[in-house]
Amino acid sequence: MLRSSSAVVWQEWQVHVTSTSAEVGGPALLTCVAPPAVREHATVAAWYRDDAVLAPGDHLSGPTLLVDEGWRLVVRSVRVDDSRAQYSCSVLDSLTGERRRSTPVNIDVAPMSVASAPRSIFHGTWEANVRRGGDVILPCLVHSNPPATIR
């Protein structure tokens, strides 16, 4: 009888967070980044603001929005104190059970300008994976003063 076996090769890996800059009152985008080989079988276990876990709650309301299966965090309306807060994420590798937490980052918060044209805080194509029949959230990350109307 032939037995099929598979091996798991252990390798060191790290996770980190990237952050967009934001104006007071506007959105900021934070991205949890893990190596592609790990991301295939890993999940974001938690996001932290300082040492407090950010509860996902209702994904469509509240001060934060989790998108891209939790790999991205949108802070909807940035406040001045968000520049002092430290954000980090924790990733769980489902193959090894290992969990890694990123080093914390701050959001670069600029004062609100007097008037500005709508501008995107995330340039480029937004990609999301979804299973057939599943729901997907594609946020429109635009900020202006006065607030833009999206139709």
UniProtKB/TrEMBL annotation:
InterPro entries listed in its UniProt record: Ig-like_dom, Ig-like_dom_sf, Ig-like_fold, Ig_sub
Residue span(s) of domain Ig-like: 25-106
SMART domains recorded: IG
Stated name of the protein: Ig-like domain-containing protein
Organism: Iphiclides podalirius
Species classification: Eukaryota, Metazoa, Ecdysozoa, Arthropoda, Hexapoda
